[in-house]
């Protein structure tokens, strides 16, 4: 599978999040870093298929413990994308498989579809 470089690991604050791959007004990806691990999700809330951040790069709860969609406060596990509270409880974010090599983050050349 071909891949693309997304960013340097250090472009994402440890314990924080970034929006990436901007298209028009929205970032297509929600990217969360925890140490040397990076979790990448389509920035597409399963509730109403909207972007999730409350402002640029802000996807996480105040304690950094989970992803929050600020439209209607759906809460998602950072590692699994599982929605455990809010209007789409039981649904999932769409994962973008990411690998970290030599301090660089790579994702597949083609993003997954929200309809998979
Ligand atoms: S659009 Fe995300 S909780 Fe409603």
Can you describe this structure?
By secondary structure, the chain is mainly beta. The chain has one domain: Rieske Iron-sulfur Protein (3-layer Sandwich). It has no helices and nine strands. The strands form three sheets. It has a three-stranded antiparallel β-sheet, with no helix packed on it. A hairpin with a 2-residue loop joins β2 and β3. This is Rieske (2Fe-2S) protein. Keywords: 2Fe-2S, Iron, Iron-sulfur, Metal-binding.
Quickly list its features:
9 strands; mainly beta; 116 residues; Rieske (2Fe-2S) protein
Q: Would you kindly provide a brief summary of this structure?
A:
It is built from no helices and 9 strands. It is an all-beta fold and 116 residues long. Keywords: 2Fe-2S, Iron, Iron-sulfur, Metal-binding.
Task: Output the radius of gyration.
Answer: 13 Å
Helical/strand content category: mainly beta
What is the CATH top level name? Mainly Beta
- The CATH topology corresponds to Rieske Iron-sulfur Protein
Distance between the termini: 18 Å
Tally of alpha and pi helices: 0
Count of folded domains: 1
- Per DSSP E runs of 2 or more residues, the count of β-strands stands at 9
Element order, helices and strands?
EEEEEEEEE
> What percent of residues adopt helix (DSSP H or I)?
under 10%
Beta-strand percent range: 35-45%
Strand order of the largest sheet: 1-9-8
Major sheet: 3 strands, antiparallel
Q: Find the CATH superfamily.
A: Rieske [2Fe-2S] iron-sulphur domain
The best one-word shape is globular
Low-pLDDT runs: none
Roughly what is the average pLDDT, rounded to an integer?
95
* Bound ligands: FE2/S2 (inorganic) cluster
What is the CATH architecture assignment?
Answer: 3-layer Sandwich
Protein name: Rieske (2Fe-2S) protein
Keywords: 2Fe-2S, Iron, Iron-sulfur, Metal-binding
Domain Rieske: 4-107
Pfam family, one: Rieske
């Amino acid at each position: 599978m071909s891949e693309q470089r997304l960013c340097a690991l250090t472009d994402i604050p440890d314990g924080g999040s970034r929006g990436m791959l901007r298209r028009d007004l929205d970032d297509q990806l929600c990217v969360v870093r925890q140490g040397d691990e990076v979790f990448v999700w389509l920035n597409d809330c399963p509730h109403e298929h909207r972007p999730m951040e409350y402002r640029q790069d802000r996807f996480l709860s105040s304690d950094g413990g989970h992803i929050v969609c600020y439209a209607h406060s759906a809460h998602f596990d950072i590692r699994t994308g599982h929605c455990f509270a809010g209007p789409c409880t039981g649904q999932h974010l769409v994962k973008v498989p990411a690998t970290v090599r030599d301090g660089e983050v790579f994702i597949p050349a083609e993003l997954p579809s929200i309809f998979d």
